[in-house]
Write a structure and sequence with these properties.
This protein is an alpha/beta fold. The protein has an 8-stranded mixed β-sheet with strand order 1-2-4-3-5-6-7-8, with helices on both faces. Helix 2 packs parallel to helix 10, helix 3 packs across helix 4 and helix 5 crosses helix 7. It is globular.
C-alpha cells in the first residue's frame, strides 16, 4: 500500500496509476465517510482502459490513513493534505473530481493554487443556510450516538435512488448494529471537523472547465434553485443531470459516472 508520510503518526493511503499518451489524471476526493474502493471498483478500471490516470486516496481518519488523535481533522487540514499529495506525486494533467463535500475540498484546493486542468463537482453545489447547518449537525450527532449504521439507516432513503435502496435494504434497520461512535474514531473526527466547512465559495474565480453532476433523487442536499444559481456563477461549466440517481452517484451508477468522466476528458482534449 502506497502512503504519503505527513508526520510521525500521520499519513495518507493512496493508489496511483499514471496516464498513457495524452490522457488526464483523475484525482478522486472522497466524501467524509468514503474510501478509494468506491472509485476503484468500476470507475478506475474503465478510465485506465482509455489511457487515463487515476489517483485515489483516503483522508486522514479514513481507511488505511493514519492520524494523530490530538490533531483536529478540519477542512483546512484536508485541503492542505490534498495539495501536498498533488505536489508530491505531480500527476500529469490532473482533473480533480469530488463527491459531496469532497467537491468543496477539491474546489478550495484549486482556488488555493493547486494545478488542475478541470474540476468535477458531484452533488456539491449548495449554499450555506440554517437548513444545511442543521443537517450537518444532525448527521454528526447521529454518527456519535449510533455509529455509521444509524446514520445510513436514517438518511439512505433520502439520499439514493430506488435501485440502490433495494440493494442496500438487506441488513438495514437492525438496532443491534447501532453503537456509539468512539470520539477518537476518524469518521467521528471528520464529521465534527466538517461542521466548520466554509461553503461560501467564490465560484466566479474557478476559471477552469467544470463538470457539475447532479442526482435528482438526492432529497437531502439537492435544491433546484441553489444549483441553478451556483451553476450560473461558474465561468466554464457544463451540467449533467441524472434523474434516477441520488447523492451517491459514483456508487449508484459507476458505469454512467465513468462515461461522464470520459466525455469530460474529451472536451478537455479538444480545448
Amino acid at each position: 500500500m502506497a502512503r504519503l508520510q505527513l508526520g510521525p503518526k500521520d499519513d495518507l493511503y493512496y493508489e496511483y496509476d499514471s496516464p498513457s499518451g495524452q490522457g488526464v489524471t483523475f484525482v478522486f476526493v472522497n466524501a467524509l465517510t468514503g474510501n478509494t474502493g468506491m472509485w476503484q471498483a468500476d470507475i478506475g478500471p474503465r478510465l485506465r482502459a482509455e489511457g487515463h490516470g487515476v489517483l485515489a486516496y483516503n483522508f486522514r481518519g479514513q481507511q488505511h490513513s493514519s492520524f494523530d488523535a490530538g490533531i483536529a481533522l478540519t477542512p483546512e487540514l484536508i485541503v492542505a493534505d490534498l495539495k501536498r499529495l498533488l505536489e508530491e506525486i505531480a500527476p500529469p494533467r490532473p482533473v480533480l473530481a469530488g463527491l459531496s463535500i469532497g467537491g468543496l475540498f477539491a474546489a478550495q484546493a484549486v482556488l488555493q493554487g493547486a494545478a488542475a486542468e478541470g474540476l468535477v463537482l458531484i452533488n456539491t453545489l449548495r449554499k450555506p443556510s440554517q437548513r444545511l447547518k442543521w443537517l450537518n449537525e444532525a448527521q454528526a450527532r447521529a454518527m456519535a450516538m449510533g455509529g455509521g449504521r444509524l446514520l445510513m439507516d436514517l438518511y439512505l432513503p433520502l439520499l439514493v435512488g430506488p435501485a440502490k435502496l433495494r440493494e442496500m435494504r438487506e441488513g438495514a434497520l437492525d438496532p443491534a448494529a447501532y453503537e456509539p461512535m468512539d470520539p477518537d474514531h476518524g469518521h467521528d473526527k471528520l464529521m465534527q471537523g466538517a461542521l466548520s466547512a466554509d461553503w461560501h465559495l467564490p465560484y466566479e474565480e474557478l476559471d477552469v472547465p467544470v463538470l457539475v453532476m447532479t442526482g435528482l433523487k438526492d432529497r437531502v442536499f439537492y435544491d433546484e434553485d441553489e444549483v441553478a444559481e451556483l451553476l450560473g456563477r461558474l465561468p466554464r461549466a457544463e451540467h449533467l443531470t441524472m434523474r434516477e440517481y441520488g447523492h451517491l452517484i459514483p456508487a449508484e451508477a459507476p458505469q454512467e459516472t465513468a462515461a461522464a468522466l470520459l466525455g469530460f476528458a474529451e472536451t478537455l482534449r479538444a480545448d
